[in-house]
Batch of 4 targets.
Target 1
Amino acid sequence: MARLLGIDFGDKRFGLALSDPTAMFASPLSVVEGEEPLRKTLTKLFAEEEIEAIVLGVPLNKDGSPGSKAKQVEAFKERLEREFSKPVHLWDERYTTAQAEGLLRRAGLSGRDRASKIDKVAAQILLQSFLDYRRRTP
């Protein structure tokens, strides 16, 4: 079975998470600064791992409507699909950063340590929620 890659989209940083080969569990992978370094990282990941699809976090408002960055994320989705020829699923990322912050704080990480990990943990949360949904939905 193939893995899924989760991406937490940001203005400066991208958090990455990867599922296990059975697509049951998501693990935080890394944080990449900038779109060009992200392309290089993705190229390497796709060469090394059997990744079937990307799950890209899209910012939605509390009411479920697209947030202010949704158009940016949709344009990024199209670039990813063209460049890597992989399906990209948009997935609601509401509250993932707050959840990641809470998890890291409860784990006792200092502010600096939390800041360096928050994006990849947010990517893990959004990917895990996608995996859970996919398992529950035929």
Target 2
Amino acid sequence: MLYFRRLTWFIAGRMLLICVLVGMLVCGFFMAMDAANIYVVLNDGMQKRVDVILTRQQAEELNKYFHADFLIADEALEGALNGISAYSDYNITGFEYELTIEKLWAWPWDDFANCTVVERVPAIYGKVISSRRKEVSERIPSWQGGRYDITLVKAGGTWKIIGMQQKTILVEPDGKNDGMETEVLVS
């Protein structure tokens, strides 16, 4: 009887260890899968947002990346689509975009994720609209990037950006400040 009890405890201990390891692997897999999906949504979504603000084209594609509540409340998008953006007087043909994800965390059992990103647009290419040449500067205004705390929600198996709060403003360099980036804290 003593040998049977030892054998049972040996098997039970090994089974418990195997179950714990398998549970950790499954949890790690789902965390990695969520992180990869969030990374794609952040990169593509934030770049598409800048594209729509600069060019005012293909705004309906934002629905792939952003929750409807965010799109309704985004003042930068609203200004661009209503023609009161700083870029309304320019025909933007292209831009360089950089997004750095500083922090990203999503539990596999949670439907919300939080991250911190730094967005920059170091260069914007285009020309003044011909009808506005005499009224505005030839120089395209610099993009005000920044550090953002972003909240994402998983709805129907798809991650979407639902909230974005700017923590600092990064003013892109122009010829006046010798290429040095300026950072301003937003309170």
Target 3
Amino acid sequence: MARILVIEDEKMARYTVHQILDRAGHEIEEAENGAIGLDRLEAAAFDLVITDIFMPVMEGIETIQEIKRRHPDQKILAMSGGGRTQEIGVLRAAQAFGAVQHIAKPFSEDQLLVMVEASLAG
């Protein structure tokens, strides 16, 4: 399966995504913000990066832009909460900056796995 880096500041959300992907057979590494995620990406190769959008230290859009600058072919799945996120279209903006797919929280296990497979294929 795939090596996936999950960048998410909320510990419980990070744990949940990790567990879902681990059960599906993927190898997971975690980072609690974009800066740490970039460090992890420099240290190892990943088939996919899943990043939250609203985070402290380095927000998701900035993280996506920097990943694409350093690794133009890196596949990225953007995720963020509904509500205000959907109202301002930030997940669509994430795709404009280089994410291959986006998913709004909350999502089901099946929805996440479908989006991960679509991102890996994309």
Target 4
Amino acid sequence: MTKYIKATEAEIEMVMSSRIEMLKVVNGLPENTSFDNELLDQTREYFSNSDQTTILAVDQEVVGCATICYIKVLPTFSHPSGNRAHIMNVYTRSNYRRRGIALHMMEMLIEEARAKGVTEISLDATDAGRLLYEKCGFTRSEEGMILTL
């Protein structure tokens, strides 16, 4: 039976192992790929000290994860609180897919965002994830512009 955990500092290594697994799978990297220490250290720092929530799906071991990052921006007419969020790293191991795990994690994150007064949630979707996000009420949008410094 899958249980869902709102990760705390005590689960940081579970979060890290799930994120590393997700990065390898999503990017098509070999299992033996190692990551730069700066990436690992900054990731631990982010999960420990940033305004975010990570949900872990656990069935003996971590089989899924999803993170929402809270962002405070200058308020606008349509978003007067300035409370926004971005969902990242929605991942379920292949042998656990199509069981509603990702949907349940998404619902938990969306509900928490509502409770925090978030007025807009964004995410970047792969083709494989679009149907899930549409079930959650997300609509497609065009990306804006970016400046890389």
